[in-house]
Amino acid sequence: MKKYLLIAISAAMMAGCTTPDIFNENASKGTYSNVKDPDIIGTSHKAGEGLMSQATYLQNDLKAILITSVADITDLNSSSALGLMVSEQIGNRFAQFGFPVVDLRTRHDVKVREKSGEYMLSRDIQKISKEHAAGAVLVGTYAVGRDHVYVSTRLIRPEDNRILASYDFDLPMGPDVRKMARQKTR
Question: Rounded to an integer, what is the distance from CA 6 to the centroid of its chain?
Fold first, then answer.
């Protein structure tokens, strides 16, 4: 009887020595992450719809929309696979609504620049906007947090930099989102 009691007490003591994953150093690295990837396409399309619902001025004329990369907020001269994909999917949604879309993401001479915390369209974009009779330019930034990527998008009127529409959303940091956010581009 004493033998069984000793085994039970030993088992209880050993169980108390185990630690949950929150104290495991690998837990902070996402090794044990149960976060699933969101519907990135659906979320991006919803952002496009949200922007369109605010930009009635564009809906009346069906003017072209120029697409730029969604940039890393800590370095507006760089993006990532995630930033490129989100802007492409929003642009695709605009095209599905019948808007002419001009993709500027592959042009290295066209940049959206930051001046005192505000977005300003470069002269190149303003010139290209006139060439394409563009009604708006899609710009955006993203910030990588611990558990989410936060994305802010805007439609800006090129001739005066007026914000026509804005839409913010976040993406849970699942394995695909994490990988795409780390793949930097210039």
Answer: 57
* Domain ranges (residues) in the chain: 37-185
Beta-bridge partners for 112: 121
Output the six-digit token pair for 152.
């802010």
Q: Find the farthest-apart pair of alpha carbons in the chain and give their distance in angstroms, rounded.
A: 92
5 vs 12: CA distance, rounded Å? 11
Terminal Cα-to-Cα distance of the chain (whole angstroms):
72
The most confident of 22-26, 64-68, 82-86, 157-161, by mean pLDDT = 82-86
Question: Tens of pLDDT along 64-94?
Answer: 899 988 989 888 878 899 999 999 999 999 9
Whether the full predicted model's pTM is greater than 0.85, yes or no, is no
Q: What is the DSSP letter of 146?
A: S
Instruction: Tell which CATH classification among 1.10.3470, 3.40.50, 3.30.1360, 3.30.43 matches the domain 37-185.
Output: 3.40.50
CA distances from 30 to 36, 37, 117, 128, 181 (A): 12, 13, 32, 43, 14
Per-residue pLDDT tens for 83-132? 999 999 999 999 998 888 888 765 544 455 554 444 445 556 677 777 77
